[in-house]
Structure formats: C-alpha cells, structure tokens
C-alpha cells in the first residue's frame, strides 16, 4: 500500500477508536488554539486541537501573528500557543509570564535554533564561513543590485532586531523581510538553481536540513547580557552583538485562566511534548512533499496514537 493510502486507512480506523467523552466539558465554550505562520506550528496546533476534541472539548483555531498572539492570550481571547521559540519569542514570552496572565505550560524535548543560514555552496563565494567575520569581507557577493556593495539578508515575518545586530557587528547588510515562510523557501530554491549566494533566516528543527546541506552563521555566542548590557561583547557601544541561542528552548504558552476553566485540557497541554523529529517530519510532509496541513495533521495522529494518547492524563480518560 502506498503511504498515503495506508495513512488514510489508519485514519479511518482511528476515527472509530477515538475516545469521545464530551461530559468532561459541560461548558462548551471553545478552547482557542492559535495558528501561527510556519508549517510545524500550524500542524501541531491542529494536532493539539484534535486531541482536545477527542476529549470532548470544542476547539477553534484563530490565526495570529507571533506579535499579536500575546495580547489575545493575556486577555483569554485565545488560549493556547504550542510552539513558542526562544530565538524569536523569549522576550515577549518572559514579559507575559511575569505579568501572570500567561503561563508557561512546559518545555518540549526539541532543542531549537533560529538564525542566519546559507546553503553549503555559498562557502565557495565567501571563504571563512560560517564565522560571521567572513561576512565583513564578502557582503557584496550577497548584493542584489549589480555593483552594489551591501548584502541582502532575507528575513521572515517574525520580528527580530536584525538591523540592530547588523549595526552592532559592523556588517554591510540590508534586511529584506519577506511576508511569508513560503517566500523564504522560494528564494532558497531559486538561488540554489542559479548557484547564487544567499543568506536567509532559517531554523531547526525544520524540513530544510533534510533537503539542503547548509549551515548557520556562527555569530558571537548568545548571552542574555548581549540584550541588556551594551558593554558586553565585541561592540562596547551597542546591544545585539551576538547570535541567537544555539540550544534554545521550545515551549507551550497558555492563558492563565485555562487551568481552572479546562483542567483536563490544561494537564494534557502540559504533557504534550514535541521532539525534533516530530517537528521536522510534519514540516517536510507539507513544505517538501506538498501534503495539505489537514492531511499532515490527520496522518500524524493516525500514525502516532500511542504517543498522543499518552499525553492525556489517566485521570482525564473515561471509565
Ligand atoms: C518561529 N520560527 C520557527 C519561524 O522561527
């Protein structure tokens, strides 16, 4: 049987096996699980929602950018975000948790890194990579206007103080922030086809590492002081003279009222645990194999019932 037929088959069987115990949730107000704008998050948010549904909860999936999500979580408009990445979200997350209106619902096993990245062939154009200092001498190879000397760094739609870092490290680069993750992958594909130098935002775990050989730029090692103390680091006058964390955390965030309102959903959320393999696998299904988000969600649930059912505490199961 082909993989997709097989997974459809397993999905049908699973539908019949799904424990539905709606009595757990007398109040049928929907739990709102936020959908952000990168593939693994979209699928794993839906996976989380389907787990809640199997427990009898009603679930909605509001879209939010990573910036807008905090206000919605704080006010209980939305309730859950399943992939909070340290490199792009730690500052806001920590501020929210300190406010006591958003809670830390636990850390996944996956270790994360988000930073400037290039496909391996770029080293032929810029000797000395992945050391960031190599970029000082070869910014112009990343230029997009002929004869221009400043390089193009392609960023995604997740706000990072990239311009501050470029300034603090004395690099001659301009940030070109594209509106969607898909635009990053199109730019990568095009550059690769034409053997053109490119440096862009990427992260791990992701599908990219399974398909393209490449490396992150090695900026000066991250240190929290890099964001708070200008004197720290290679540039004594500026913040942001460092890279993002290399063994970053990945967390779940929840509205602080969730534990009381939906205790079993909250306990389940605390146990939900994504590995690097789960994240890169589901991302590859969509971004590389071109499966739909919904099919990828159903496939993961169908193939991994032992894993996700183990996340539902015994005391929250019927009988
Ligand atoms: C939050 N992200 C994984 C896109 O860097």
Give a description of the structure.
The chain has two domains: 3-110 and 248-316, D-Maltodextrin-Binding Protein, domain 2; 113-228, Glycine betaine-binding periplasmic protein, domain 2 (D-Maltodextrin-Binding Protein, domain 2, 3-Layer(aba) Sandwich), CATH 3.40.190.100. Helix 1 crosses helix 13 and helix 2 crosses helix 12 (276-287). It starts with a helix and ends in a 9-residue tail after the last helix. The chain has helices at residues 3-17, 39-54, 69-74, 86-99, 134-138, 162-168, 181-193, 208-211, 225-228, 258-261, 263-271, 276-287, 293-303, 305-310; strands at 31-32, 59-60, 80-85, 102-107, 113-119, 151-155, 173-177, 199-204, 214-216, 250-255. Helices cover 39% and strands 15% of the residues. It is globular, with a radius of gyration of 21 Å. It is built from 14 helices and ten strands. It has 319 residues and is α/β, with parallel strands linked by helices. Strands 7-6-8-5-9 form a five-stranded mixed β-sheet, with helices on both faces. The protein binds trimethylamine oxide. Trimethylamine oxide (TMO) binds at residues 38, 85, 88, 114, 158, 203.
Quick overview:
The chain is α/β, with parallel strands linked by helices.
Kindly list the characteristics that best describe this protein.
single chain, 319 residues, D-Maltodextrin-Binding Protein, domain 2, 2 domains, 3-stranded antiparallel sheet, globular, binds trimethylamine oxide
> How many distinct domains?
2
- The CATH superfamily name of the largest domain is Periplasmic binding protein-like II
The total of beta strands comes to 10
Within the CATH hierarchy, at the fold level, what is the topology of the largest domain? D-Maltodextrin-Binding Protein, domain 2
* Helix segment tally: 14
Which CATH architecture of the largest domain?
Answer: 3-Layer(aba) Sandwich
**Largest beta-sheet details:** 5 strands, mixed
**β content, as a range?**
15-25%
Estimated structural class: alpha/beta
CATH class of the largest domain: Alpha Beta
Determine Rg (CA atoms, Å). Answer: 21 Å
Gap between N and C termini, in Å? 36 Å
Mean of pLDDT: 92
Helix and strand run: HEHEHEHEEHEHEHEHEHEHHHHH
């Amino acid at each position: 049987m082909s993989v997709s037929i097989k997974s459809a088959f397993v999905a049908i069987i699973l539908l019949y096996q799904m424990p539905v115990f709606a009595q757990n949730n007398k109040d049928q107000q929907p739990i709102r699980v936020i959908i952000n704008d990168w593939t693994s998050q979209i699928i794993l948010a839906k996976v989380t929602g389907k787990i809640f549904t199997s427990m009898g909860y009603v679930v909605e999936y509001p879209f939010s950018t990573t910036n807008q999500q905090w206000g919605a979580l704080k006010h209980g408009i939305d309730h859950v975000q399943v992939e909070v990445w340290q490199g792009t979200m730690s500052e806001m997350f920590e501020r929210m948790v300190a406010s006591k209106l958003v809670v830390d619902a636990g850390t996944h096993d996956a270790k994360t890194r988000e930073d400037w990245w290039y496909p391996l062939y770029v080293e032929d154009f810029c000797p000395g990579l992945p050391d960031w200092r190599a970029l000082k001498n070869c910014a112009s190879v990343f230029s997009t206007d002929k004869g221009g000397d400043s390089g193009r760094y392609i960023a995604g739609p997740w706000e990072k103080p990239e311009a501050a870092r470029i300034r603090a490290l004395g690099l001659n680069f301009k940030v070109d922030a594209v509106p969607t993750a898909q635009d990053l992958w199109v730019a990568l594909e095009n550059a690769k086809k034409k053997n053109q130098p490119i440096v862009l935002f990427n992260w791990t775990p992701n599908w990219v590492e399974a398909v393209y050989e490449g490396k992150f730029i090695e900026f000066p090692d991250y240190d929290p002081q890099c964001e708070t103390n200008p004197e720290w680091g290679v540039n004594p006058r500026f913040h942001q003279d460092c890279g993002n964390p290399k063994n970053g955390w990945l967390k779940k965030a929840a509205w602080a009222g969730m534990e009381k309102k939906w205790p079993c959903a909250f306990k389940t959320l605390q146990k939900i645990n994504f590995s690097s393999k789960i994240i890169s696998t589901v991302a590859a299904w969509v971004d590389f194999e071109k499966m739909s988000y919904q099919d990828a969600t159903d496939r993961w649930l169908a193939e991994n019932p032992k894993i996700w059912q183990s996340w539902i505490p015994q005391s929250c199961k019927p009988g």
